[in-house]
Amino acid sequence: LTFDNFFGALFCPAQSAQFTQKNTSKMSRYLWTFSLTVIALSNVGYAFDWSAYTTKMGETFKSFEFLPQLKEGQWEAKRFETAGKGPLEAQYEGLKGKDYIVVSIGSTSTQAFAIKSGVASLVHITDSIAMGAKKKWTEDQIKTLFAALASKRAELGGGATAATAATAAPVPVVFTNAISYGLIAVYKFKGMGDETKVLLLGDDVTEHPVITGQVKLATIPMTDAQKEKHPAALLVQELNKYCKTNKYQNMYVKLKEPKLDNSWAKFKLSEFQESGESDPIVVDVGGGSVKVHFVKDGKYGDKDFKKVEELAKFEANVLYTKGKTATQIAKELTKHIFVLLESIGTKKADLKARVHVYQTGQMRADYAKRRSSARGEEDNLLDVDEYFDTFYDDIFMKGYAAALEDVKGMRRKAAAHAPRQKSRLMYDYYYY
Fold it and tell me: CA within 20 to 30 Å of 90's CA: 7, 11, 72, 316, which one?
């Protein structure tokens, strides 16, 4: 076995076959194939020392957590209920006193909230939740989004079936966030007037709109260059087409400030203050950005890396994918966070006394997968996702205990067909 033969076998399929035929027995060929598969499937997420990372971050700050996506959505719903729906209903009076749904399509993810009798809850969207306004959506993702909305509209509509809710239920749905700003960019460019109105999706499908003062997408044509520059506006075109084809009524896109307030970080700040903490600070560490949320002199404030010149190009995902050790990333991230905190007058002693850090992005995703498979059991992550979706839905429909029983039933059925799959799943991590 030479150096050249080994790497030739590793990267060249033909040479790999020749190598295994000449140098190994039948059994060792199986082992060789298995080794190559492991090498091919390995990634930084599974080689990373997560325990060292979480320990270091936990020792440095008052608290540290990889923020589960479900918890993030629940916090956002609570914030929208207390601070977001008031300005939205003031802008669109047709929503006052009604049940409705808000779909917040951000740059890289989507969250939806249902308001029923003034109380907000999270609307579960399986595939679309990982999509945002920066990417082109597939037809299946749009279909998944609207199926979830139709189901929730049926629930809010008082017993209508999901099939009829799309065309019959009057429950309005308002799309906002990054999707709005992308559309405004094109709207302003054409110089077509008042942003205080709302865009009605589906052209003439809605005969009796809940929100008045609409503009139609047909009056805002886009060139190919604009579609490339403004993917959010292109997404609106696709949503409009889907609404028109499938006769979805009362679907709108918000065109104007105030920006929807569904900040989970603001929710946590308020919660910390109510629990008696003095001047708490919440740090949101995303994959491509870091933002500090704080209260100073009784007023809320925030600051992100983009506003500090020496930090403008810093990204946690870049550190993570460069192969640095867990301790190195924790130290470097802490150093950069402190530079940001110093700019608002925070001292080093405050890190352990006042600062709560929550992390999302690629590291969160890999950490969740690692927790699932690091239990010493054989997990099939695709099956775990299926179980998680079922558990997620049932929590809201049946309650925690019933949801847990449903998932256990799914596991028993899976075990009957594939006895080696004995996953404990991810519900103990995602549900709080």
Answer: 72
